[in-house]
Amino acid sequence: MKQSEELQEILRRIDHRGYPAYKDTAGAYQFANYVLSIDHVQGDPFASPSKVSVRVDGKKAGFPAEMTDQKHTRIALADALVRRFGRQIEQYSHKAKGSGKSGLISVSRPGQEVLERSAIEITPGSGDVLLRLEIGFPANGRTINAGELGKILFRFLPECVQQSLFYKNTDKQHLQAVYELAQDQQFIREQLAEKQLAAFVADGAVLPRESGVSDRPMKHAVVFSSPQSLAVELELPYAGRLRGMGIQRGVTLIVGGGYHGKSTLLKALERGVYNHIAGDGREYVITDDTAVKIRAEDGRSIQKTDISMFINGLPNGKDTKSFVTEDASGSTSQAANVIEAMEAGTRLFLIDEDTSATNFMIRDELMARVVHPKMEPITPFIDRVEELFSEYGISTILVAGSCGSYFYKASHVIQMMQYQPQEITETAKQEAARFADITRDKPALKAADRPEFHRVFAAAKQAAQNDRMKIKGMGKDAVSIDRDTVELRYVEQLVDSEQTMALGYMVKYAKQHLFDGKRDLREIARLLEELVQKKGIGAVCEGRYLPCNLAVPRVQEIFACLNRCRTLDETGRGALHGRYSGK
Ligand code: ADP
Ligand code: MG
Question: pTM for the whole thing?
Answer without folding.
Answer: 0.95
